[in-house]
Amino acid sequence: MDTSYLRTLKSKLLGTPAGRLVFVCNFEAENWWAEGYVGLPAPRFSAPTSVVGRMEELGVLLAGADDVLILKHPLDPGYREYLSGLGLPVPSVLVPENVRPDRSTTEDVLDSPELLRQLSALGAEGAHLLPMGTTVLEQKLTDRCGLPLAVPDAATFARVNSKIYGRRLTAAVGLRGIPGDCCESRDELAAVLRRRRPALTGGTRMVVKDAYGVSGKGLLLLDRPETADRLLRMVDRRAERTGDDRLHVVVEEWQDKSHDLNYQLTVAGDGGITLDFVKRAITENGVHKGHLMPVALTAGQRAELEHAAELVGGRLYDDGYTGIVGVDAILTTADVLYPVLEINARLNMSSYQGSVTEHCQPPGLVAFARHYPLRLPAPVGFDELAGALAPVLHRDGPERFIITCFGTVNADADRPPPFDGRLYALLVAEDQAGLTALDDAARAALAHLAPREH
Questions:
Q1: Burial, 8: exposed, middle or buried (Cβ in 10 Å; 0-12, 13-18, 19+)?
Q2: Where does the source fall among the domains of life (predicted)?
């Protein structure tokens, strides 16, 4: 049985809770949307790391038992059995017959005639493709095999995921926006930095962000006028070298934050807008580390986010977008809520947690979705991992530790040892103290997997 979270999503996207979805979790989507746009003068487009690629396995948490998940590598049998033992629905998994490490999963699918045939059959039976976000690759896939998209086309996704679009939307609907500017050329950036120079001299910090930057990439902090001058010189040198003075960035005043917030809304096919949840995002140097849920908000703050969700969702619908939207917001140390820091009109990390939190987080309990960096001397089988984590996997009482992605653990196992891995998990406890104790116990258990010092 699909979770209520998934049935509701299907109703909004497909018009029926019983629809069938084919998931492809293309975490590299921003790289493709950025094509043709000019960001900060630094290397930007790069192939996703093996670990990021294996994060596609998070889709197993969202897909239902009758759905299909496309993965570059088969789902580990031990992990499948583990999820089933938790009572979670586990989808069918399809793997391309032609796989190359230097390609995305969608590119592998496009080079796999047998899998394309299976997807064509699924499309003929009424299934729809749900990517994390549609890029030119998923557009090509649906054109090739006739499997229709459950969400808009690549051009729409590229348009609405620009930070420039997000700032302009925020201003257009009248929401409180972080003071800043949009720049689409070298001259516009120079004018902004010139106008902001007195503020920089006075100690105000500014941050410059690529229109399609993600996870701390494509971001530069300006803490004094000299830093701004250096940036402009780099932009000038590139413009002279390339003959192209375009630049797609936003410049914003840095805010001292007490909380990073993330809320999800869904824009239905009929234009209906729902606020699905609000979580506290845990970040480090601009890089996402996890989510705490639920988050304590005042009635006024909750109402402000609900209002923002309606306005953001309505404008996205008017601009041709339907589907899941993740919005980053911040609460400053001065207790000012900025309801839109960034709009991510696609599936987000927290989107994949909806079904597992519904199933594993009873009312009144708190949860922490996070990942653990690993340093491993050799590949770790699921049974070995589960054995190491036995002190937290088999606890009495309300505390629970749920493994939410195993594929990332051995993603770099083809490299000389020791290699880096990553374990994703959901921790559930009665309160914050219980989460901290469970987290500490998990860290201690995972330490036994690290290389031995001689």
A1: middle
A2: Bacteria
Q: Which amino acid makes up residue 434? A: G
Please provide the CATH number assigned to the domain covering 256-344.
3.30.470.20
Q: What is the rounded average pLDDT for all residues in the chain?
A: 94
Structure tokens at 10: 């299907």
Nearest Cα to Cα of residue 73 among 424, 413, 446, 425: 413
Phi, psi (degrees; rounded to nearest 5) at 420: -90, 145
Which pLDDT does position 2 carry in this prediction?
A: 87
Q: Please check whether the domain covering 179-253 is classified as CATH 1.25.40.10.
A: no
- Show me where the domains of the chain are located: 4-159, 179-253, 256-344, 361-449
pLDDT tens digits, 315-363:
999 999 999 999 999 999 999 999 999 999 999 999 999 999 999 999 9
**CB-based burial of residue 437 (10 Å sphere; 0-12 exposed, 13-18 middle, 19+ buried)?**
middle
Residue in the structure block whose two tokens are 């976000």: 133
Nearest to 167 by CA among 132, 209, 204: 209
> Do 361-449 and 256-344 fall under one CATH topology?
no
The fraction of the chain above a pLDDT of 70, given in percent, is 97
Q: What is d(CA 210, CA 250) in angstroms, rounded to the nearest whole number?
A: 7
Non-local CB neighbours of 393 within 8 Å, separated by 6+ positions: 386, 401, 403
Topology of domain 361-449 in CATH is Alpha-Beta Plaits (3.30.70)
16: left (phi over 0), alpha (psi -120 to 50) or beta: beta
Query: What is the pLDDT confidence band of residue 45, given thresholds at 50, 70 and 90?
Result: very low
- CB < 8 Å & 24+ apart, contacts of 275-279: 275/305, 275/306, 275/309, 276/5, 276/324, 276/354, 277/350, 277/354, 278/302, 278/305, 279/350
pLDDT band, very low/low/confident/very high, at 285 (cuts 50, 70, 90): low
Task: Give kind and range of the element (H or E) at residue 275.
Answer: strand 273-284
pLDDT in tens, 112-160: 999 999 999 999 999 999 999 999 999 999 999 999 999 999 999 999 9
Specify the residue for token string 């749900």.
Answer: 130
Task: Check: pTM over 0.90? Answer yes or no.
Answer: yes
In the numeric block, which tokens belong to residue 438? Answer: 């469970």
